């Protein structure tokens, strides 16, 4: 879709962007493509629920219902988002997901 010229910033259902949805389901390969091909990814854009791609990733690591052949890796998605400049607050910890807690804690000290 990116090659065809679709704008990845245009929100769809629930004001979610493609980055938001890919993060929610842990589709790290899609997240990587979206971040690599977008000079200004919507890292802080909030969907209808007030979630950013990173907070959706954390929520999805606990609540995602997607069952596909795509391997989900919420940990990798979170690392990609934080490396790209996503912000988070210390108050988000604990998340109920020990992997996410470890990633967030590691980036608090940097």
TrEMBL record:
Q: Which SMART domains match?
A: ANK
State a single Pfam family of this protein: Ank
The protein here is known as Ankyrin repeats (3 copies)
- Give the originating organism: Mariniblastus fucicola
Classification from the root reads:
Bacteria, Pseudomonadati, Planctomycetota, Planctomycetia, Pirellulales
